[in-house]
Amino acid sequence: MVTGLLTTSCDTDNVAELYNAQQENVAMQTATIALKQSEADGEYSVQVVRSKTQGEYTAAYNFKGDDVFTDEGHGSVTFADGQGTAVIKVKAQNMEFGNTYSFTVELADDVKATTDTTIHHSSTTGNVYATTLSVTRDYEWEELGTGKMTSESMGDDSGNPSTWEVQVLKAKGYDVYKAVNCYEKGYDVMFKVNSDNTVTVPQQKAWTYTGHGPVAVVGTGTKTGNVLDCKLHHILLSQNYDLGAYSEILTLPEK
Fold this sequence. Notes:
By secondary structure, this protein is mostly beta strands. 9% of the residues lie in helices and 54% in strands. It is built from four helices and 17 strands. The strands form three sheets. Strands 10-11-12-13-14-15-16-17 form an eight-stranded antiparallel barrel. Strands 2-9-8-4-6 form a five-stranded mixed beta sheet. A four-stranded antiparallel beta sheet has the order 1-3-7-5, with no helix packed on it. Strand 13 and strand 14 (198-209) form a beta hairpin. The radius of gyration is 26 Å and the shape is elongated.
């Protein structure tokens, strides 16, 4: 079977036409990259590829991103003679915990025009001309134990709050906590305790309003002992509508 396949494929008259690129055919290696890290700074590589490797070639690109990023290539990347790959370097500084940052590298129009139609004549997608990279600065989490969530928003029609157990994680080295699957599976809620024992709950998706989409919580509170007593607004994101502010209490596991 292998011999027959090789014999059928080895049409020497057409090898050059099929495999020798007639143009640079520059493209991005991938369209999206998503990363997580605990450090405030970082360096990231975006790979660019080409089909024609003879000679040195410099490709221009457009860079757009959040202020934390610096494009080390200043809008151009060079392929060395004989090389089919080149790397764009991007640095980040002073990223804050809990935030996601992103940048996009897109090839310039004249570089896009290097597409080799011989290679891509049967392609349904063509080359990838832009890469978007996102970085989330996340804490390193460790298990703290089982806590308790007491929620006015999830209470009964008589106004009695609902209480249930939740797994609680703690950020290593920080007074920051995460209630896993707090209101709904798949949505964790983070509580940040400040130096004065006030509590900040940054806006984050927390549960789904059936038929309407995700709801985020945001608000503040205070920490007394192991109790985080907060007043949280529940925001219907699809309409940016405040469903109301409710008493939401996270009781941390006792040490």
